[in-house]
Design brief:
five-stranded parallel sheet; 11 helices; binds zinc ion; TIM Barrel
């Protein structure tokens, strides 16, 4: 069983582009051998610059393939009163009742420990939903911001102990290494990982720190230093989840890098069968009660 915890539909709004609709997504899942996908929202954040992917769009799209697609919901931390005291409970209650299993993709251009973010994160945890977030510390690109060593994420983990935060994005994965080149902190640093990075430290210390392996950032984080990457997968096999983050149509035969990596981990026995099963689907089933 292969579950993609990070899939998208919608339309890039900053240029005249075609929408990736729900049929395209299911077609892609068939090609890649993906049984189920969690479909994320984006349109709630203006920074995301995506259209046709708010929570209502996603719930409606997933209802066409109830056996294959799992809807996520999304609320912007600034919604309503733009206040750290905003009560989001009625919306969360409604989304959970309508089948949403997680919140994502959380990527406002705000600091991770902004009081408005912490207020939302805490309430989401009270409803039992994990949050999949994108972290990108560049000023103009979407994604939550943090300082070197991820102290703001650590504060959120401490202040929202009942909320599982699932890491993703360039700055999150750059911080797998203790040495993070300044010019690549929002990119895809190559070369050996220096032990003592913020990501392994937080994954080890906090039960509510998880990660997905999606996108170029997750793939790069795991493969830039294969020995370190395999040890990381083995050590955190109970809190890592397969994901693609693919937002485009794919020609038949084309494959997301992470799909190939999952196959290689099994075929070349780079990771135990049990660990592969957990990363491929077991952890997602356990986390979201799928
Ligand atoms: Zn995404």
């Amino acid at each position: 069983m292969l579950i993609d915890v990070h899939a998208h539909i919608g339309r890039l709004g900053t240029e005249r582009s075609e929408a990736l609709d729900v049929n395209d997504l299911v077609n892609k899942m068939d090609i890649w051998g993906i049984d189920k996908s969690c479909v994320h929202c984006l349109s709630e954040h203006p920074e995301a610059h995506y259209l046709e992917s708010d929570t209502e769009d996603i719930i409606a799209a997933c209802s066409k393939y109830p056996d294959r697609l799992i809807p996520f919901c999304l609320i912007d931390p600034r919604f309503g009163l733009n206040s750290p005291d905003m009560d989001f409970s009625y919306r969360l209650e409604e989304y959970v009742a309508r089948g949403c299993k997680g919140m994502g993709e959380m990527l406002p251009k705000m600091y991770f420990d902004d009081p408005r973010c912490l207020n939302l994160f805490r309430q989401v945890g009270e409803f039992g939903l994990p949050i999949i977030f994108d972290m990108n510390d560049s000023v103009n690109h979407y994604g939550l911001r943090d300082d070197y060593g991820l102290p703001r994420l650590e504060k959120a983990l401490q202040e929202c102990p009942d909320t599982v935060l699932v890491g993703h994005g360039p700055t999150f994965w750059a911080e797998i290494s203790k040495e993070v080149p300044e010019d690549q902190r929002a990119g895809y640093p190559k070369g050996p990982v220096v032990a003592g990075g913020a990501v392994p430290r937080l994954m080890e210390k906090y039960d509510n720190m998880w990660a997905d392996l999606s996108a170029g950032s997750g793939y790069n984080g795991i493969t830039r230093d294969e020995k370190f990457g395999l040890e990381f997968l083995d050590q955190f096999q109970d809190k890592l989840m397969f994901g693609t983050d693919s937002c485009a149509r794919y020609a038949k035969g084309a494959e997301a890098e992470i799909v190939g990596l999952m196959k290689r981990l099994r075929e070349e026995k780079l990771l135990s069968e049990e660990a592969c099963d957990k990363i491929a689907s077991g952890n997602a089933i356990r986390l979201m009660d799928l």
